[in-house]
Amino acid sequence: MTGINTVLIDDEQDALDSLEILLGEYEQVNIIKKTTDPIDIFPLIQTSKIDLVFLDIQMPTVNGLDLMQKIKECSPGLAVVFVSAHANFVSEAIKLNTFSYLLKPVSREELRQTIEKVQQYLNSLKITPPGKVLINSKNETIFINPAEVVFFKADGNYTCICLSDGTEYVASYNMGAVIGKFPKDMFVRVNRSLMVNKDHIVSINRKLKKCTISCGNKQMEVDVSTVFLREINTIFQS
């Protein structure tokens, strides 16, 4: 079983120590660093192979939600698990496609499920045939050609994947984890819950804030965000 290189970030030392003890029950988890300074994560991402980060949200020097976005910019496939004493951040964390959200005090059962899910995700990255991406759904494992993906749609902790032949699969992890498996420059976020293959975008209506995408022999219209419209030229520049 491959080890999971892990970093723990929390401004409270007691919380770090407690989580370290719980994670000590999993021999596959290698704690590379535990720190009260959130900025420590960036040198580690650049110099070490990091698979998993447990991250607090409310910290005095930086907000964990903001930090996650910066982490994903540096390492899109990195699994980030929020650990917070407050449930009111769950919806915002889901929008950011966090891998999981654990409430303090951390439940052993929820932690077990999270570690198993992370292990499955990491294993899937290593056994994929050339040119394919492995995706686990509830009942099967699918190998997908990235070029055949039309869009990804977030559905809470799951992700709907639509292919050009009209086939749809539901991945058993959130969109952030799914997207981390695919070529970074192939897909663009058109709204909060939808990422589209740029090659399948037919047209963009700035006035109506919509874009038309091709799906096999059909076309469909979806809403787009103001952020997407503002960044069109950058996104599609050659």
Automatic annotation (TrEMBL):
InterPro entries: CheY-like_superfamily, LytR-like, LytTR_DNA-bd_dom, Sig_transdc_resp-reg_receiver. The modification 4-aspartylphosphate is found at residue 56. PROSITE patterns: HTH_LYTTR (PS50930), RESPONSE_REGULATORY (PS50110). Residues 133-238 form the HTH LytTR-type domain. SMART domains: LytTR, REC. Keywords: DNA-binding, Phosphoprotein. The keyword ATP-binding does not apply. Residues 5-119 form the Response regulatory domain. It comes from the Bacteria. Pfam families: LytTR (PF04397), Response_reg (PF00072). GO terms for molecular function: DNA binding; phosphorelay response regulator activity. PANTHER family: STAGE 0 SPORULATION PROTEIN A HOMOLOG (PTHR37299:SF1), TRANSCRIPTIONAL REGULATOR-RELATED (PTHR37299). This is LytTR family DNA-binding domain-containing protein. The lineage of its organism: Bacteria, Pseudomonadati, Bacteroidota, Bacteroidia, Marinilabiliales.
